[in-house]
């Protein structure tokens, strides 16, 4: 290795993480170091190469043309190196290691913490890096190596998956809503309603639009919010209705009603295409064994 390459290699992690995050502070959080240290490493890399790699955009940063070219050539190298080090360490000590695990925004308040708490008791030296995001974002992170394992609803077709169970979307309405006492609803009855929905990239939003189109109308989206708990809060105030997965915790003032004309969604556990490390395999086996935890909810029809 040349002296120049040897000098650059330690700086590439700061460059790669900042390029992916688009923000130096978030990159510093990811790397577990002060922001000033990340900034110094980026400046040192720019001085070694002789060109600026980032430009300021609002409160974040974006790659310059030279920065994009460098990132295209180095990002896979960084991930290969990270994977190699993680694998060697985990094989040296199968009871430790790092697992990068993702799960959807519709899970988390109870099921995932409970599942991971039990895992931690059996494998206390395995470190978990957790990411919660919508389905397509999780899939991309598995594809490019940023996640080792992810629960997705529904899972993509191009990744290895173990189906853990199924989930059906329910209509959520305020307890004071005219439909609150119904045992079942047809989608065609909702044509004049106002909806509270997640943004267009979310699978739940795509399903809402698809189901409504099949029923003969386009849903009127009165409020668009990414957080599912906030959507349910808006529903509780009777600001609209929502088609959502069952809630994991009781939401005061909200009832859920089965809807005809909808289908179940698969809950899948997706693994990266590489041979999983012992720590990843251990968490995967734990999740498969206790998949029923991910299927437990508090939602039920109002007559139950």
Automatic annotation (TrEMBL):
GO terms for cellular component: protein-DNA complex. Residues 11-64 form the HTH lysR-type domain. Keywords: Activator, DNA-binding, Transcription, Transcription regulation. One of its GO terms (molecular function) is DNA binding. PROSITE patterns: HTH_LYSR. Gene3D superfamilies: Periplasmic binding protein-like II, Winged helix-like DNA-binding domain superfamily/Winged helix DNA-binding domain. InterPro entries: LysR_HTH_N, LysR_subst-bd, WH-like_DNA-bd_sf, WH_DNA-bd_sf. Belongs to the LysR transcriptional regulatory family. This is LysR family transcriptional regulator. It comes from Rhodococcus spongiicola.
């Amino acid at each position: 290795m040349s002296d120049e390459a040897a000098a650059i290699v330690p700086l590439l992690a700061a460059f790669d993480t900042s390029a992916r995050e688009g923000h130096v502070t978030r990159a510093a959080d990811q790397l577990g170091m002060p922001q000033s240290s990340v900034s110094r490493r980026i400046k040192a890399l720019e001085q070694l190469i002789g060109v600026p790699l980032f430009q300021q955009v609002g409160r974040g940063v974006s790659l310059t043309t030279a920065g994009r070219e460098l990132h295209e050539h180095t990002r896979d190298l960084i991930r290969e190196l990270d994977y190699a080090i993680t694998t060697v360490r985990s094989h040296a000590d199968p009871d430790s290691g790092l697992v990068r695990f993702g799960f959807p925004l519709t899970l988390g308040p109870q099921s995932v913490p409970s599942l991971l708490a039990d895992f931690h008791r059996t494998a206390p030296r395995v470190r978990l890096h957790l990411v919660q995001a919508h389905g397509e974002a999780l899939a991309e992170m598995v594809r490019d190596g940023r996640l080792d394992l992810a629960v997705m609803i529904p899972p993509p077709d191009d990744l290895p998956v173990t189906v853990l169970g199924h989930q059906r979307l329910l209509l959520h309405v305020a307890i004071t809503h005219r439909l609150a006492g119904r045992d079942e609803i047809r989608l065609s009855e909702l044509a004049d309603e106002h909806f509270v929905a997640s943004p267009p990239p979310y699978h739940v939003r795509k399903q809402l639009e698809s189901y409504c189109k099949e029923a003969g109308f386009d849903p009127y989206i009165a409020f668009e919010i990414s957080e599912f708990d906030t959507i349910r809060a808006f529903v509780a105030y009777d600001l609209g209705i929502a088609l959502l997965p069952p809630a994991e915790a009781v939401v005061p003032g909200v009832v859920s009603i089965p809807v005809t004309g909808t289908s179940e969604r698969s809950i899948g556990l997706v693994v990266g295409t590489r041979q999983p490390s012992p720590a990843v395999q251990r968490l995967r086996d734990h999740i498969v064994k206790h998949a029923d935890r991910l299927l437990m909810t508090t939602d039920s029809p109002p007559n139950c």
